[in-house]
Amino acid sequence: MNSSYDVIIAGAGSIGVPAALALAACKNSVLVIDSLSSPGQENNKKAIGGIRATHSDFGKIKLCQRSIEIFSTWQECYGDDIGWQSNGYSFPAYSEDDEKKLRELMKIQHEFGLKIKWLSAEEYSELVPGVFRKGLRGSTYSWEDGSASPLLAINAFYFRSVALGARYHFRERIIGLTSNSDRITGVITNKGSYNCRFFVNAAGNFAREIGNMAGLTLPVNPDNHEAGITEPVLRFFEPMIVDMRKETGSANFYFYQNKEGQVVFCITPDPPITGIDNRATAGFLPLCSRRMISIYPRLRNLKVRRTWRGQYPMTADGFPIVGPSSKIANFINAVGMCGQGFMLGPGIGELIARLVYEDLKPEDQQILTGFSADRDFRGMEQFK
Amino acid sequence: MNQNRISEHPVLTVESRPEIRFFWNDKALAAREGEVISSALFANGIKIFGHHSKDGSAQGIYCANGQCAKCLVIANGKPVKACMTEVLPDMKVKSVEGLPELPGSDPVTLTDISVQETDVLIVGGGPAGLSAAIELGENNISVILVDDKSKLGGKLVLQTHKFFGSVADSYAGTRGIDIGKMLAEKVNSFPQVKVWTNSTALYVFSDKKVGIIRDGSYQVVKPSIILNAAGAREKFLRFKGNHLTGIYGAGAFQTLVNRDLVKPTRKLFIVGGGNVGLIAGYHALQAGIEVIGLVEAMPVCGGYKVHADKLKRLGVPIYTSHTVISAQGDQAVSSVTIAEIDKDFKPVPGSEKTFSCDTLLIAVGLESVHEFAEEATEAGIRVYSAGDAKEIAEASSAMFNGKITGLLIARELGAPVPEIPRSWYEKAEILKSHPGKVSDYRMPEATEGIMPIIHCNQEIPCNPCSTVCPTGSIRIAGDPVLGLPYYHGNCIGCGKCVTICPGLAITLVDYRQDPENPLVTMPYEVSNIRIREGDAVAVNDIDGNPLGEFRIEKITDLKSANRTLLVKIKLPAALAKRAVSFRIQDESVSAPTPDTMLPDYLRDDEMVCLCERVTAGEIRKLISKGITDLNQVKAITRAGMGPCGSKTCDNLIKQLYRQEGIPWSEVESQTRRPLFVEVPLGDFAGVRGGDDE
User: Does residue B389 form part of some domain?
Assistant: First the structure.
């Protein structure tokens, strides 16, 4: 059995799998190691599936624009339905202050050529029939954003990468890294050891632990978010709705109707529940349903089918850490996705392939600078 | 105009309830006040409630228990489960064709969710839960008992037959429905036992709280101890055509027939010869439904022999070492093909038979509803289980171990309860024992006087005949509950043993008037099929073998017999002791159709996930790709992602892995998550106002 690879990736999740796909497509030999039993079993399957390019910074915008291209053309190119729909994102505003913030941000987004506009309350009600109107000032609407099924997408990427020669070792745990002065030379697991030219840390929740194995301190701390899905019904509203208001017990929350007709929703607890705890609590559904029904009363009749918890591997400033370590040149980080790994994944996957192939574009350098592990983490993203 | 109702029943009282009007797809129909939508529709002959959004297949009743969503209809604009929603006057009910439309709503007010503390939370108000609640009530312990139905009793509510078990410990000889009422009354007499009906436990959360939907609003209970007495769910079976409507579980059938008194079928076929399937067959006959046959994969039925014998004698053929190969029909099942199976459970080509039927009951076993216990353990709450939720057995066993568990909990909470005697645990073991070996008859030799003949030759936990005999003439050989009864002594001909025997397996033979032609007294409980004095009936032996046609001399309906008639027939001395009962269903009813539908044995189109319409073939394809994580199977196919929450497909997928030779140790199970059943978002937010007030 071959035990030498061009690239070994820690983690078969939202980042690891598309990275393996992009690397295998460039004829690299790739091994992905994951302690769970199949792709996407940590946080990828917990993602609700929203994909937007309408961020506020160069890096995320560029990466997600590429991701959207990949998601939206996947079925055309490879035949698998991954549940993509171009249903757009919306951030409704119920206060003057929020409206102002959103309109300011739109200016930046327009500079990047993003398709986003302001809808009046009237126009927004047409898109979201029955939305709570009292105090509604209008909403942003970015119609080129969309959504896909994380479950279908990661499996489509996985099977495609396997067809291109990527190898996966599931149920295998990385216990150490071997190095030679300033380079990683291989990976030791509970089942064997393997050599590599490049090592990619795409370990999500466990990014910090993997970093430690190479003596790196990565400021990634998971916190818990809760999500749920309803029964399917006929399509009744278009875009992802992001309610950015903060209330007792929760910061923002968001929901949309997926291609199956099910409403998928997620809430950010406030104060954050740090650590990794996948167990459900009795308070989540009352909290989340109150907020959802307040903004969209007709959701009261929609039946919840399943709920779950997952983690956002957070960094202090809300931006990911992507790129080669300044201390170990062939140790590439793709961690701290702050809950956006699914939408960033395909874009980041290709960026990693270009890194390995030494084929970086000028804009890649700008992205990598913004996402450097050595940056000042005190900055804050405008809208998460 | 309602032709599919049971208008008379040998055991159940048919109350006349006011008629109300409702609309089905704009057509006015009659329902009975207080019944659920599904039963109102069945009573009107409507069994197809809509069509699936994925493949257009017909949808209808499946669990009749609120656990799946195959009976989804639109009631006054809202998608609801027909089996759990009461039909209201002038309600507009519509079929769900594809995905339902979500109604609009005016803004609403939201109220806070209350948290209640209790010593004990009992999930399930069936035989086990009620028995435990009684002991806790006696000991002044605060209890909240939740049950998802409107009436306590669990499956006892559906059990019209007299119970097995022991008279002293589990009401043997009394009908299940009557036991249910007695237990419920007792539980309701304790002020510190709060009974929440129409309340479904959703999940035991990690913050040591249990989420419960009570009458459409979310309540949170914080118990010190949980008793999981949530019962069992029925397993399903893979075969070609298993997705057609009219194929459902025996529990659903008993709900329709015995609780709601509707006649869901005219021609019934049953898969599975355990007690559940056998009893369902008997209940069908009592409801005036033709039972075409019953298949059992094993060489003998797994249920009590007396139950199987009872069915055979009434004229229902039981095909052992047979299985169902396919169901045929356009939308709804119209025929079933069965075949003999060899010792490796492979169908024997050429042995196929096709029967026409309109309903196929699947009674292939139960599995414990264990989720609540697992969740409680994970949350760190002390938890007990009792009844079927602990181990599948008869209700008599559930009552006894429910009682023991109730006392154990009371002790743990400091009540002055003495230690449970060891003998109780031994008795609990006996009550849940599976049917034992079949012995030869112990037939009395005398040919004079009067005596009972006991046609009960398999060890089962049952003893009412021995306790009811006023002269103590029926004794039990060996264990006092499990052993075989035999006659020894002085029969006075009171007939009490004949009427109390739940297996209808005791007759009286009276030589006193005419030793050559003794009078044989037989029990009869299918009085909806009328018999009169003077009628000639086809008398048969224990296994249903014909002994000839004889006239009924006399029929007595003793009040003390609790709706079991005593039928007296004069028989030649040579046959008298062999005669047990007589056929009521003509042989022609159960004849196969002349054209056998030959199935193809490539069975990739068997449905595995009924909710999301995933076939065995789709799963096999993934198995062949080397996928061993059921979460990945779910991610790709959606099997297990439907409304029932993998309650049905889990077993079937596991069987496929076994069939493909993958050791179970190499397969990762599906992750289970809240909620137990689907619940409207509004129920969690304490919605008030809006458009329905």
Answer: yes
